[in-house]
From TrEMBL:
<dbReference type="GO" id="GO:0005737">
    <property type="term" value="C:cytoplasm"/>
</dbReference>
<dbReference type="GO" id="GO:0005524">
    <property type="term" value="F:ATP binding"/>
</dbReference>
<feature type="binding site">
    <location>
        <position position="22"/>
    </location>
    <ligand>
        <name>ATP</name>
    </ligand>
</feature>
<dbReference type="GO" id="GO:0016887">
    <property type="term" value="F:ATP hydrolysis activity"/>
</dbReference>
<keyword id="KW-0808">Transferase</keyword>
<comment type="subunit">
    <text>Interacts with small ribosomal subunit protein uS11. Not a structural component of 43S pre-ribosomes, but transiently interacts with them by binding to uS11.</text>
</comment>
<keyword id="KW-0963">Cytoplasm</keyword>
<dbReference type="GO" id="GO:0005634">
    <property type="term" value="C:nucleus"/>
</dbReference>
<keyword id="KW-0067">ATP-binding</keyword>
<keyword id="KW-0690">Ribosome biogenesis</keyword>
<feature type="binding site">
    <location>
        <position position="21"/>
    </location>
    <ligand>
        <name>ATP</name>
    </ligand>
</feature>
<dbReference type="GO" id="GO:0004017">
    <property type="term" value="F:AMP kinase activity"/>
</dbReference>
<feature type="binding site">
    <location>
        <position position="19"/>
    </location>
    <ligand>
        <name>ATP</name>
    </ligand>
</feature>
<feature type="binding site">
    <location>
        <position position="24"/>
    </location>
    <ligand>
        <name>ATP</name>
    </ligand>
</feature>
<keyword id="KW-0698">rRNA processing</keyword>
<comment type="similarity">
    <text>Belongs to the adenylate kinase family. AK6 subfamily.</text>
</comment>
<keyword id="KW-0547">Nucleotide-binding</keyword>
Amino acid sequence: MADGGGRARPNILVTGTPGTGKTTTCSLLAEATNLRHINVGELVRAKDLHDGWDEEFECHIINEDLVCDEIEDKMEDGGNIVDYHGCDFFPERWFDCVVVLQTDNSILHDRLSSRGYMGPKLMNNIECEIFQVLLEEAKASYAEEIVVALQSDTVEDISRNVANLTEWAANWTPR
């Protein structure tokens, strides 16, 4: 199954710091490609795939094993866009393209503030973006040739990213 063997359609992981436009990008990309959008955050909440609540960061403590078990069959079949701010716990064999969305820090600060992020949660996410934590995590977890960083500051950036990823998906062939 490694390297997309046996899948008729690709799997794409879209990751990045909260506020970089992952869900917007994934929704538009799913619409354009007819790939299935798997929003891991929503799945965790809907199916209780967590180990409780983190008071400091005001989020669920995701149970990575439960998440992987929940989506494994879909991933093996292919045709998925996975939307999550982490990436190092997913099996490498699942993905044919790993997209890391990046946003200018001042834009990201405004987006997160408007979502009600404050204190440690806000600062942690801004620092994560400054130090390119998710890009480094993706590069350490997946083959370098499938990891791509895309700027996601504006509506135009998102449209261009969706168009480029749609073209990539249309031209994808199993390796």
